[in-house]
Protein: Glutathione S-transferase
Organism: Eoetvoesiella caeni
Amino acid sequence: MTYELWYWNGIPGRGEFVRLALEAAKTPYRDCTREPGAGQERLLEDMNRVREYPPFAPPYLVVDRMVISQTANILLFLGEKHSLAPADTAGRLWVNQIQLTIADMVVEAHDVHHPIASSLHYEEQKAESLRRAQVFRETRIPKFLHYFERVLIPHEGWLTAGTHWSYADLSLFQLVDGLLHAFPKRMAAVISDYPCLSGLHKRVGALPELQDYFASPRRLPFGDGMFRYYPELDGE
Amino acid sequence: MTYELWYWNGIPGRGEFVRLALEAAKTPYRDCTREPGAGQERLLEDMNRVREYPPFAPPYLVVDRMVISQTANILLFLGEKHSLAPADTAGRLWVNQIQLTIADMVVEAHDVHHPIASSLHYEEQKAESLRRAQVFRETRIPKFLHYFERVLIPHEGWLTAGTHWSYADLSLFQLVDGLLHAFPKRMAAVISDYPCLSGLHKRVGALPELQDYFASPRRLPFGDGMFRYYPELDGE
């Protein structure tokens, strides 16, 4: 059984949270839109197939006869299947909760450069972006990062008790990575307030099971995805 | 064992998705912030308690020694515990996926009147709201509702195969209810395009297990919650 991952071609985006879990679990998968001769059209065609459980949007995972969409839902499935999260109810729900909180911050990071509509260009909503970016930098970044720092402390550096990472640790790495890319000045100014979070970012970046992936062309640069760097939206 | 539900006082908001599930399951619960003499301060005090798994934001549910937050995560738990969702993997993930898609639309409905910051008043971001509302009405409402209509058809009116509702059916009712409140003109213009969704809204509204609740003061009006009615943001 090889998983089929479907996501927009050319950006890490939300697909990257799934890729990190698949790669760290050493699970074979096809990144369907990125296969030679494939591309965005193949994704749109596949999304329109008649299915019992059709996705609303990518990413989605096709496995056996199941079609699983929504990033946090895919990770819930992979967590259970590949032991990438605790098996007990409290631990499993905790990891899912953190994943959903990460997802909330990802939406906000995206909406900084698209506060009016995803369907419009950044340049068409730049005035609104400048306003939203200021609030995001000054209020939202500290609020979210303070929370993640707070929940890392009692667990000695991972989100779950014990010495092993969960899929939400990988996602938290990706979130911090994205923020460092999109808001380098702001992150440089505040990162020392979050030593546990910064430590987690470094530890996931150094995980032996991810080194092959990070060195491969499968790992995409941020580009025009959720996390975008516009100098005018950043600031200390 | 009585559940403790914690949410902002005075608005249905995200807490309402949890309330509907608890009420329809006929499960006893305390709505802690709304108890006599309680209120917002009691919520803030409780949120700051030192806990192994602290919430990022309300709603959260306290049960036995667990603290479960994030709306979709609470519902995942209640769904498993009270059979409010299918027990098999495919059905359970499907209901979770729909719940997450509903949550995505709730964020967008909220951001129509708060496109810059939740911490600012509507009047401080009204110009941006007018722009975002137009996109929401013309593009996002049809996109989401078309999807929900599409997934209801093969299942004869509920989101899951079979003759029983799941917690996501209750949430979909609440979503439509909120849209009818916030965008009455727009919804009146498009609702006939979505007969299955409209039918689900009516059927959940008539569920025998919810009639006591709907007639009680426990069911709150929309007010200044996620779904708000501003005439200038509505239109056909």
